[in-house]
Amino acid sequence: MELLIESVDHEAHGIAHHDGKVIFVDGALPGETVIASSYRKKPKYENAQTIAVVKASSSRVTPQCPHYGTCGGCSMQHANVATQVALKQRVLEDNLWHIGKVRPDVMLRAIHGPSWGYRYRARFSVRDVVKKGGVLVGFHEKRSSFVAEMGECHVVPPRISAMLLPLRELVASLSLRDRLPQIELAIGGDVDVMVLRILAPLTAGDEQRIRAFADRHKVQFWLQTKGPETAVPFHPLDAPQLAYELPEFGITMPFKPTDFTQVNHQINATLVSRALRLLDVQPGERIGDFFCGLGNFTLPIARSAGEVVGVEGSSLLVARAKENAIHNGLGDKASFQVANLFEATPESIAALGAFDKVLIDPPREGAMELVKALGSVGKHAPKRMVYVSCSPSTLARDAGLLVHEHGYQLKFAGVVNMFPHTSHVESIAVFDR
What we know:
By secondary structure, the chain is an alpha/beta fold. It contains ten helices and 22 strands. The radius of gyration is 23 Å and the shape is globular.
C-alpha cells in the first residue's frame, strides 16, 4: 500500500487510512508518504511495516543502531530527538483531553537529556539457539519472543555495549548455558553489576570462568536462583556499593540490582529537581509521598519539609527506604508505612494524618483509588498534588477524577523523555485545590 501518514499513535506508529480502514504503520512519521506491507489484518484496522519511504519527513534520520527494526528495544530511532519529544508531548495532550477531558493551564517545557548511552538498567534475555550459531544475549525481537541477534546496543553505555559479544562467549562456555535465561544490568556511580538468573548450580569451572570475566571487564556478578529477593553478590565481593546520586539534595541512594530504580540517572535527577520545585515545599509542611519505593522523592523532600511520610505497598522496599533515610541522616524527618494503595479509602488515608501536599509516583496502573481517597477527605484534602506518571492514559483518567469530581485544577503538565528512541512517555502534572 502507498499511504499518507497523518499522525502517530501512543506507540509511535504512523496513522493512515486506506480502503475504509485505519492503518498503523511501524517506522513512519507524520507527513510522509510510504509504501507499507501489512503484517496483521483486522476488520477495522491493520498493522503494517514501512517498506520504503516515497516522501520523507524533514524529521527523519538514519537510525544509529544496525539492529534497529529487528530488535524490539527501540521504536523511534528513525525520528530526530526533538521530534520524538514533540510527539510524546502530543500523546500526553491528546490523552489528557480525550480520556480525562482536561487541559493544563500551562504545558511545561519537556525534560530531556543524553539520547545515547543513557540506559543504566536493562534486562537482557539469553537463549542458546543452535540455528543461529549458539548463545544470544539481547532484547527480544520486534513483535516476537525470540532474542535479537545483537552485536551492539547504543542506548546502554559503550562499555556495556562492548560486552554483549563477550557475554555470549561466556554463557556458551558454561555448563548451564541452557539454564541461564536472563542477565539483569544495574549501573551505579562506582560499579557495574550483572545479575545472572541461574536455574541450575554452577560448577567449579563455571565459577572460575565467571570470576575471570568479571576481573577482565571490571564488572560485579550477582547470582539469582529464584525471585528478585534471592539475588546475592558472587564476585568480586569487595566491589563498591551500588548507589546513585541526587547531588542537588546531597542524597546518596544505595540500591540492590533487582530493586526498582529509574533507568536514566541523569533524567531522574532532573525530574526530582523539577518535582520538588513544583511541590514548593515550605518549612513546617507535612508531605505525603505515595508509591515512594526506595525514597527517590521522599528523601529530597525531607531536606526542606517539616515531615514527610513515604507510603509503599512492598514491606521490603519500605525497609530499604528506612535504611536509605538513616544513611542520609534523615531518619528523624522521613517515616515510612506499608499500605496497599490500590485499595486506598478515605478512611485509610485519613488514618495517615493530614498532608499539606502530596507527591504520587504510581506504576502504569495509575492511582485511581488513591486519588479518589485523597480528594474525599474533606478539609484535610492536600492543597497541591504533584503526580509523576509512566502512563499518559492512566494519568489522564486520574486527572479527570481530580478535576471533575474533587475540585482540583490541572495547573501544569509536561513530558519527561526518560527513554529516548522508545515510545514510552513519562510525564509530570500538578493539581491545585
